[in-house]
Design a protein that fits this description.
By secondary structure, the chain is of the alpha+beta class. The chain has three domains: about 1-80, Beta Barrel (OB fold (Dihydrolipoamide Acetyltransferase, E2P)); about 120-155, Dihydrolipoamide Transferase; about 185-405, Chloramphenicol acetyltransferase-like domain (Chloramphenicol Acetyltransferase, 2-Layer Sandwich), CATH 3.30.559. The chain is built from ten helices and 19 strands. A hairpin with a 2-residue loop joins strand 10 and strand 11. The chain is globular. It starts with a strand and ends with a helix. The model is unreliable at about 80-110 and about 150-170 (pLDDT under 50).
Length: about 400
């Protein structure tokens, strides 16, 4: 029976997608639910699985093409996939074993993100060759780069006095350029950033926070916390909970602009910016006000894993009311984050640095962080923005406020 493989229904507001890569060739056997091809939209990568087992008889759309929902991608002939060759008789197997070394134990299918698959294909590597350090043994981009580095270094024979030839030493000074098209995600990010700059009246206010009490509390309980809840106690949960309390105090910071209307939200869905192989993503964690620290940390870990694996959905990326971004993990001391429209504000965290501070008349070294709040001046006044940051500062410098909600 002949079956058409079609582009599935695309997420809301997405009109088309780019065919990134086929994972099967014409004439190759396919198992049911096995991924055939990756489609990249503005935000996520969609996998198109085989509805039944069979053989891929025809590929209609090639890599790099733009497709829409319902377009036919390929033809699949339903039927049994060719069975593996029968095992040799014991006597034959013994003879073969003497003639050739035993093969390594075969591994099952290795799940990888589209970015990792492209890197593997560029270097002609089998995924089973690379040890994975990601969640559930998944292979990350860093794993592939580390494997390549170790593999290259093994090409030099120890003790060889002249491991490098004259030809290898010679260096070409030719000036080169390489032009590559933007990915759909990068193009969409660029479009939204320019749109935000041209639409909102963005202004950034700054403050600094002493994280002594947060760090002391975290150090005291992080082992017990992880042992009981199975997740690490990070800094982000403190900032998320402090932000929720500040948003309750200043509702306009949790609002959004629609035309000439201000839409106030009585819920707190926080977007947390995370870096991935495909670029910056902002998955949304919903109803943070109703979460415990452990529930928030678990949800954040799950979302970050999806972003890295390329399995994040459009629903995970839409509907936030306020965003937090942490440039400090990359070493940023100060920045002015850009709004994630239609939201009206975004909080920027930065690196923690020991700085001399005056405490009760004495100079002490304290772990300090600069905070930045970029806000839409069309609906948020400077007074509200400054007081919002002060509220976060006060809660983090005295974390018992988070428990008492004062």
């Amino acid at each position: 029976m002949t079956i058409e493989i079609k582009v599935p229904q695309l997420p809301e507001s997405v009109t088309d997608a780019t065919l990134v890569a086929w994972h099967k060739s014409v004439g190759e056997g396919v198992g049911r639910d096995e991924n055939l091809v990756d489609l990249e939209t503005d935000k996520v990568v969609l996998e198109v699985p085989a509805p039944v087992g069979g053989t891929l008889s025809k590929i209609i759309v090639e890599d790099g093409a733009t497709v829409e929902a319902g377009d036919v991608l390929a033809i699949l002939e339903e039927g049994e996939v060719a069975a593996a060759a029968p095992e040799p008789a014991p006597a034959e197997a013994t003879a073969e074993a003497k003639a050739a070394p035993a093969p390594k134990e075969a591994k099952g299918p290795v799940k990888t993100s589209p970015a990792v698959r492209r890197l593997l294909e560029e270097h002609d590597l089998d995924a089973t060759m690379v040890p994975g350090t990601g969640k559930d043994g998944r292979i990350t981009k860093a794993d592939v780069m580390a494997f390549l580095k170790s593999d290259d270094s093994s090409n030099v024979t120890p003790g060889d006095p002249t491991p490098v030839t004259v030809e290898t030493v010679e260096t070409s000074f030719a000036r080169e350029e390489r032009r590559v098209p933007m990915t759909r995600l990068r193009a969409r990010i660029a479009e939204r950033l320019v749109e935000a700059q041209q639409t909102a009246a963005m202004l950034t206010t700054f403050n600094e926070v002493d994280l002594t009490e947060v760090m002391t509390l975290r150090k005291r309980y992080r082992d017990d916390f992880e042992k009981k809840h199975g997740v690490r106690l990070g800094f982000m949960s403190f900032f998320a909970k402090a932000s929720v309390e500040a948003l309750k105090e200043f509702p306009v910071v949790n609002a959004s602009v629609e035309g000439t209307d201000i839409v106030y939200h009585n819920y707190y869905d926080l977007g947390i910016a995370v870096s991935s192989d495909r670029g910056l993503m902002v998955p949304v964690i919903r109803d943070v006000d109703q979460m415990s620290f452990a529930e928030f940390e678990a949800a954040l870990t799950d979302m970050a894993g999806k972003a890295q694996d390329g399995t994040i959905s459009m629903d995970d990326l839409t509907g936030g009311t306020f965003t937090i971004t942490n440039g400090g993990i990359f070493g940023s001391m100060m920045s002015t984050p850009i709004l994630n429209q239609p939201q009206s504000a975004i909080l920027g965290m930065h690196s923690i640095q020991q700085r001399p501070m005056v405490v009760d008349g004495e100079i002490e070294a304290r772990p300090m962080m600069y905070l930045a709040l970029t806000y839409d001046h069309r609906i948020i006044d400077g007074r509200e923005a400054v007081q919002f940051l002060v509220s976060i500062k006060e809660q983090l410098e005295d974390p018992s406020r988070l428990l008492l909600q004062v």
